[in-house]
Amino acid sequence: MSEVDDLPRFPFPVDAALEPPAEWAELRSKCPVAHVKLASGDQAALITRHEDVRQILSDPRFTRPTPGDDSARVADSEDGGIFNSDMASVIPQHGEAHLVWRRGIGKWFTAKRMNALRPGIAAMAEQLIDDMVAKGTPADLKASLGFPLPVWVICDMLGVPDADRDRFSHWSDVMLSMTRFSTAEMKAAEQEFTRYMAGHVALKRANPGEDILSALITDPEPMSDATLIATGIGLLIAGHETTANMITKMVAMLLSDRSRWESLLADPSLVRTAVEESLRLDANAGIGMSRYITEDVEIAGTVLPRGTTAMCSMAAANRDEEAFARASEMDLARTPNQHLAFGAGAHACLGQPLARTELQVVLEVLLRKLPSLDLAVAVEDLRRVEGLVVGGLVELPVRW
Amino acid sequence: MKITVDQDKCCGAGTCVLLAPDVFDQRDEDGIVVLLDEAPPAELHSLVHEAASVCPAAAISVTS
Ligand code: HEM
């Protein structure tokens, strides 16, 4: 036990909101497989190079840790947070069953559908920005736009009435936060949300609509109620806080050096690549994705023995000089951009076309409606939220 | 240019379709990649290379 206590604690503390910890570059060059201690006290092997992170994440033998295996827990709350909960175990994580589940919902997440959603998302962004402007400058862009937009999009996708959007925001906030709320509060939110979804699924069975749940219900191979409920909850958890924080961090990065914002105003066709570059340079993306290593595997010349929990830091990998020229610089036109912000392989983010669409649309609408947008505080005064699964900013004060 | 796609590896993320919709599509049943044009015209080559290199599942190969 004392051996584990001597290990460096991960995640590493950082002061500046948009900057990476110095340890990443050091580990990439000197110690690509580093033994660290997680917040739970459990031990993991931290992986920081692009090639290695990609290799582990795309190895079909290894999957996200699930409650039954003897893997490290990320958080110090009793059950290790939402990724170790009962709900996570209803959605199949491994092998054929995962593939079937994933292909079932993948049907809905096509690029074609995303393009069709664009006008609706733009209208939501315009409405939220109009409301923010009506309240006057300065404003918190996170509370006004970043946080509500993705939850509105997900409610639409699940066929949930607009009136219930605030409840969804609340549940999502409580369930994903591993530090701000007690375990009892998290459990209560999960139960309330599960009850809501059960009722909602029953409504959709009786009266299918255009939403993703109705599509899954009317599928030739319909999912069980338990899986439908878990899928609805899973989509909110996977898609809300991640996208909300990313909208906020992207705008912060683009305004922190205002010449970036001006380049985009001058040439809005850079929006697509600027979104990818923001995803790549996100220094506060959460701790990364863990994989339970079920067979010995060689990584960067070291054997990871079976039973290891590998913590893959995509954010560290995204700044690897071996994979990206001038990796620490923000190049709004960088192409191609093989960042790993959405993971890689069979578990790569299923919502990535939706996340990309939301980020692109928000940026387009902001550039068009508020060209004079600027930070209302110094960059040094931006503060981080230390989420374990998703990192973000406490708020993003802006003026225009 | 000649493109091949590996439907078994594809994870249906739709990245290629968003980049080059004239070359790639997704099956309606499950979102898995479909190749529309295995030898696209020169003006699409750079987008196709980009799609191949950013594919999360490394399911697209391009030979010149
Ligand atoms: C910028 C926003 C987002 C980021 C950075 C992000 C990141 C990720 C990452 C890194 C994974 C991989 C997990 C792993 O390898 O174990 C993942 C998985 C997933 N994401 Fe996202 N995500 C975002 C938005 C979304 C959205 C909007 C949705 C849907 C509404 C979504 C749905 C999912 C789902 C369902 C999975 C699980 C896929 C599987 O296990 O097969 N994500 N996401």
From TrEMBL, chain A:
GO terms for molecular function: heme binding; iron ion binding; monooxygenase activity; oxidoreductase activity, acting on paired donors, with incorporation or reduction of molecular oxygen. InterPro entries: Cyt_P450, Cyt_P450_B, Cyt_P450_CS, Cyt_P450_sf. Pfam families: p450. It comes from Lentzea alba. The keyword Heme applies. Keywords: Heme, Iron, Metal-binding, Monooxygenase, Oxidoreductase. Transmembrane segments: none annotated. Gene3D superfamilies: Cytochrome P450. Its cofactor is heme. It comes from the Bacteria. This is Cytochrome P450. Residues 59-78 are annotated as: Disordered. PANTHER family: CYTOCHROME P450 BJ-1, P450, PUTATIVE (EUROFUNG)-RELATED. Belongs to the cytochrome P450 family.
From TrEMBL, chain B:
Ferredoxins are iron-sulfur proteins that transfer electrons in a wide variety of metabolic reactions. It comes from Lentzea alba. InterPro entries: 3Fe4S_ferredoxin, 4Fe4S_Fe-S-bd, Fe-S_cluster_ET. It holds the Pfam family Fer4_13. Residues 1-29 form the 4Fe-4S ferredoxin-type domain. Its cofactor is [3Fe-4S] cluster. Coiled coil: none annotated. This is Ferredoxin. It comes from the Bacteria. PANTHER family: FERREDOXIN. Gene3D superfamilies: 3.30.70.20. GO terms for molecular function: 3 iron, 4 sulfur cluster binding; electron transfer activity; iron ion binding. Keywords: 3Fe-4S, Electron transport, Iron, Iron-sulfur, Metal-binding, Transport.
